[in-house]
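Holo prediction — zinc ion.
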Amino acid sequence: MKKVRQRRFLFLGVLSIVVIMSLSACGAKGGLSLSTLLTGEKNPIVDNGNNEKGPETGSGTTGDGDIVIIGNNGGKDGDIIHGDVDNKPVEPDKGKPEVPVIEKLDKPDQVIAASKPDKGKKLIALTFDDGPDKRYTTDILDILKEKGVKATFFVVGQQVAKNPEVLQRIVDEGHAIGNHTNNHKDLSKLDEQGIIEQFKEADNAIKEAIGITPAMVRAPYGAVSDTVKALVKENHRELIGWNIDTRDWAGTSSSDMIKMIKKEAKPNGMILMHSFGSKHVKNTVHALPAIIDLLENMGYTLVTADQLA
Ligand SMILES: [Zn+2]
């Protein structure tokens, strides 16, 4: 009898130690993910924009001090103790992701190249990444409207969630849109699930805002791996790059931007600019009317990205 009680006592002791250890581990984890969430929410894209290595260098090196993804897997482990048949406490599972596997993105609604412009025209596309926001994106929309020009916006899910009405305005005014991930992650550094999650979360924000899923996607920093390419293809999306980089995020002056576009403009040119992510985007806004005039004077028809060959 005494022996049984001793064993029970010992068992309860071990049990409570394990419970206490697990609880504190869980608490630490929860605290970390909350603070990550808070920093992540603050202004991840601005963070990227100020990064000297830049948002879209194509170099693939981001120097990412930026946002850790707020995973559903952080701090969510309710399973403090697993009991086996003998009801002996065992160590909680470590490093086992609890996020359900996401394999596919929804089929896009937006059809690529719905209307092909006349053959023989010199076509060029203006593209604006990282928005929408209520400052630069709306200024850019005003200019495009005034000039009667359509452009393409590659939007970030987090920004869409904050400014759904601006995304609505973009599509209402006839511009094309594409998915530019949820929070501007370097996709070449993520595994399949991470890549799909980035696109999926942005898809969800876009769908919530305007009710459609875009077919075009653009990778932040132009950083793509074979996995990214394969996933994009499998999910019926079109990966859009660029061939004229204004480096507006890095502080190219308005006049240098105009000179550069004059020099580099070419048929089927895809011009990369930004509508958010850096204070330098104000130069883009300043240069935009002159850029549009210049391209039209050079004989270009400005089209959306999906209309380029
Ligand atoms: Zn970007």
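READOUT: The chain has nine helices and ten strands.
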